[in-house]
Amino acid sequence: MVNHRLAITATRAVASLVALFTTLSAHAQESVAEPTILKKVPAVGGQPAFAIAVQGEHLVATLCAGGHCDWPNAVDLGAPAEVVHAASAEQIAVLELAQARHAVHLRAQSPTGSWESLLVAAPRAKQVEVLFAGFTGYTAGDPGDRSGQAIEISDLPRGRKEIVVGELSESVRLCGRDALLSPKVLYPPELKLRGIRLQRLPLAERDKAPVVNAVPRDEATPVGLLSAVGASTNAKAVSALTDGDPNTAWSEKRGEDGRGEFVVFHAPKNVPLAAIDLSIKPTSQAEPTGAAPKTLWLVTDHDLFQVNIPADAWNGGHNQWRIPLTDPLRSDCLALVLDTAYAPTQSKGAPLEKEDAHATSIDVTLAEVGAESAMTAAEIQGLVTDLSSPAAQAVTASEALAALGSTAYSALLTGLPSLSAAGRQRAWNLLETAPCDAVAPVALRAFVRAHLEQQSTPEREAAEKQLRRCPGPVGGEFEKALNLAKAPLAEELSRILADVDPTRYVNAAIPLLEQSTAPKRRALRAQLERALGDRNALLTAQRWLADSKLGTNAAVDVLRLSPKLLDRLAPYSVEKTLELLGPSADFRTRYLLLDSLAWAAAKDSRAVLRFAYAVQKDPEAPVRARAARIAPPVSGMVPQLVSAMNDPEVRVREAAILNAAEHKLNAARSRLLERLREDQWPIVRAATLRALRELPPGEDITLAIANAADEDESAEVRRPAVVALSALDATSQLPVIRDRFESDVDPFVQAAAASALGALCDRASIEGLTDEALKLTHFGGSDRDGIVGTASLAALGRLHPKDLKNRLAPFFQPEVPVFIRGAAQTALSNSDPCKP
Question: pTM for this structure?
Answer without folding.
Answer: 0.60
